[in-house]
Every structure is written in C-alpha cells, then in structure tokens.
Amino acid sequence: MVERARGVRVEIEPWGDGDLQLLRRLNAPEMTEHVGGPESEEQVLARHERYLRIGGMFRVVLPEGEPVGGVGYWERTWRGETVYETGWGVLPPFQRRGIAAAAVTAVVERVKAERKHRYLHAFPSVGNPPSNALCRKLGFSLLGECDFEYPPGSTMRCNDWRLDLAAG
C-alpha cells in the first residue's frame, strides 16, 4: 500500500525475516525513550518473532527501497471491548517529514477495509509530544490519560487516542 504525506511517498510492506536489522535500529535509546528504553537482544528476537506471527506488522519503505521504520496493528481487549491497537516508529534521520503520518494512514485504510472492529486505539506516552500530535493530526479523539502496562511489568502513563473506523 502506498500513501503520500506532505509530498512524501511511502509504502508499507509486510514484516519479513529480513527485517531483524531494522528492528535492532528501532531499538535504539532515542527510539525507545518513551517506552521504557531499549530491549535486550533476547527481547528483540522475541519481538521479531511476534511481528512475523501477528501478520499486522509492516516495514515502512521509501520509494527508493530504503526501510525507515515500522508500523502495525493488532487486536487487544480494552475496557471490555475487542479493538485494534496501532503503534509506529520512524528512524531519527527520517522523522518530521510526514513519513509516520503516511504509514499510519495506510494502516488505518487497511483496518477500515477489514470492517472487523469499530475502533483503532493508540497509546503514546503522555511525554511523547510527536506521537500525540500525530494522533491529533490523523483525527483520533483523545479519551484521556490512562495507566498502561508497557513494557511488561512496568506501568507507563499514556494518552488513550481512539479513531472511529465507522466514521466518514
């Protein structure tokens, strides 16, 4: 799927065996400061295996073929309802170019086409202004702050953003 944002064209391609190195790059301290810091190599390998299994994870690729991030969606039970959750990350040299917006827009189009769940949620840390701004820009509604267990065993304060997939 190809999306454009501010003149930037990106593609999202299914996460594959060869994307482990990209995941390692996304595990850098500057990429993980709002989600508890970098994971161990063992945790990265386990995450890579999960990404391969869940089917809703994608690498974000520029037209020239360079992978610059990851984006995805998965099912979660949230407040008694099955919803989709989304998450993303774009490598620092490629941030602030509209790439994340285009990638998340591509995910939104995919989940809308599935017509399976009404809502897509994002849970960025309250201390992550760029991710919260992206949610606002893409039309997610801020439902408020919440405590969220992430990484497992730790509680982080997040904003609960929700996009109504049935809305126009």
UniProtKB/TrEMBL annotation:
Keyword Transferase: yes
Domain N-acetyltransferase: 10-161
A Pfam family the protein falls into: Acetyltransf_3
InterPro entries referenced in this protein's UniProt entry, alphabetically: Acyl_CoA_acyltransferase (IPR016181), GNAT_dom (IPR000182), N-acetyltransferase (IPR051531)
Database matches in SUPFAM superfamilies: Acyl-CoA N-acyltransferases (Nat)
UniProt KW keywords: Acyltransferase, Transferase
Origin superkingdom: Bacteria
Annotated signal sequence range: none
PANTHER family in alphabetical order: [RIBOSOMAL PROTEIN US5]-ALANINE N-ACETYLTRANSFERASE (PTHR43792:SF8), GNAT FAMILY, PUTATIVE (AFU_ORTHOLOGUE AFUA_3G00765)-RELATED-RELATED (PTHR43792)
Protein family (similarity comment): Belongs to the acetyltransferase family. RimJ subfamily.
Entry protein name: GNAT family N-acetyltransferase
